[in-house]
Write a structure and sequence with these properties.
Alpha-Beta Plaits, three-stranded antiparallel β-sheet, five-stranded antiparallel β-sheet, alpha+beta, 4 helices, 40% helix, 276 residues
Length: 276
């Protein structure tokens, strides 16, 4: 009886093992099936996304258009000022302020608005000289202070550069650093808006010419990129010092003239195209 019970117990254990093994195998098969279905779903989703983003049937043409306009400046800039030297900083500053106030007064009396005059640079710095002492060694000694006060004058009186310089120099200005011309923001924006329209039309015309022999038509726009242009700078660089020079009648009304400047706008356009 004991042997028989042992055989029965062994049979029960072996049966349980077979049942467990079958269950594990069945679970793995089901998991594989689920995994395969998930992979199939992911593949379909990725494929759909790829087709939408990189549609091989999407036909485009990329072209660059440009437009150019010539314009004269409408704003004048004159950079000038006063430079003084004295043994002390306060003396130099006092002399500089007195002369510069006279210059500003003369300019405003001539019709230049105070709002058009701004300080662009102001400096006070010491001046040193090298001397040799009794031992033959050089050393730096302070001999004076220099004050520089530079004004920037901006006006729409485009032909008044020579007159402004004449008045300023006659009133004590001993530095004229620069004269240049520029388009006002309002004028530049108006020209730029027109140029963008013309550049896009130019790009469209180029595309149409290229597509005609191919029997293709423009059916839409994919992208437009506008290449920014900076405000044109009409430069007449100059740097002059009039310290100690008296204005003679023959020196007055120096002709300073502006010229036209070319303004350019470029665009890059990608068009959708299709067969006729």
């Amino acid at each position: 009886m004991i042997v028989m019970d042992t055989r029965i117990n062994i049979a029960v254990i072996v049966g349980a093992v077979f049942v467990l093994a079958f269950a594990v195998t069945l679970t793995q098969i089901e998991n594989q099936a689920v995994s395969q279905d998930y992979d199939a779903e992911m593949s379909d989703e990725l494929l759909t996304h790829f087709i939408k983003k990189y549609d091989p049937s999407e036909n485009t043409i990329s072209v660059t258009g440009s437009a150019v306009a010539s314009s004269s400046p409408d704003t004048l800039f004159v950079v000038l000022g006063v430079e003084t030297e004295a043994k002390t900083a306060s003396q130099s500053l006092s002399q500089n302020s007195e002369i510069l106030n006279s210059v500003i007064s003369s300019l405003t009396s001539s019709g230049i608005s105070e709002d058009d005059i701004q300080t662009s640079n102001f400096r006070i710095y010491p001046i040193y000289d090298s001397i040799k002492d009794s031992n033959g060694n050089y050393k730096q000694i302070l001999i004076a202070y220099r004050v520089t006060n530079i004004l920037s004058i901006q006006t729409d009186k485009i032909d008044s550069a020579g007159n402004i310089i004449d008045i300023a120099v006659s009133s004590g200005t001993n530095r004229v650093d620069n004269v240049f011309f520029q388009l006002s923001d309002e004028k530049f924006e108006k020209i730029s808006d027109d140029l963008i329209t013309n550049a896009v039309n130019d790009a469209k015309q180029k595309a149409e010419k290229a597509l005609t022999p191919l029997k293709q038509n423009i059916v839409g726009v994919k992208s437009v990129v506008i290449h920014d242009n900076s405000v044109p700078f009409f430069d007449n660089p100059m740097r002059a010092s009039f310290d100690g020079i008296a204005m003679e009648p023959s020196m007055k009304s120096a002709p300073i003239m502006s010229g036209d400047e070319e303004i350019r706008t470029d665009v890059s356009v990608v068009f959708y195209i299709a067969s006729e």
